[in-house]
Amino acid sequence: MAVTLRPLSADDAPVVLAINEASVHHLAPLDEDELRWFVDAAALALGAELDGELVGFVFVLEPGLAYPSRNYAWFSERYERFAYLDRVAIDERARRRGVGSAIYDAVEADAAERGVPLLLEVNVQPPNDASLAFHEARGFREVGTLAHDGGAKVVRLLAKG
User: Is 96 exposed, middle or buried (0-12, 13-18, 19+ CB in 10 A)?
Assistant: First the structure.
């Protein structure tokens, strides 16, 4: 039962939107128009399949995009070249089955091949302890923090490479 990665397409919208919604407390909301933008603009817009079923996805952005994210803007102000992992989400039923590792192996290899750091953020308020532990185990290091909504949400900004 190996994980297969493939480019996302417009046909994947219902599944991608459902996976995103199930994890929206750790991610930003996503609608069909935004999904279309990511598929078109992202350096990587990949779906992860187990047994032919789409169970996860990832979006990786390069610098220079008109993307209204404070986190992306923070990295853009500090790094000339980078790969920004905007979001990754995995269907709860497929967690702990190697999907996240397969996605990160591919994304990290792509960034390393291009010679750029892989950048991302993880919530520390509200806490996402599992994600923080996952990223720490993969060698990501903290490069900053950023508060949103008057401190109701705080992210730890991480880099690898």
Answer: exposed
- Report the relative pairing of strands 118-125 and 83-90 from DSSP bridges: parallel
Q: pTM of whole model > 0.85?
A: yes
Q: CA 125, CA 19: separation in Å to the nearest integer?
A: 22
Q: What is the mean pLDDT of each run of 10 residues along the chain (161 residues)?
A: 91 95 83 94 96 95 95 96 95 86 96 97 87 92 90 87 88
Token pair belonging to 30: 């996503």
Beta bridge partners of 101: none
87 closest CA partner among 60, 52, 114, 119: 60
Cβ-defined contacts of 62-66 (< 8 Å, 24+) = 65/41
| The residue to which tokens 């209204």 are assigned | 68
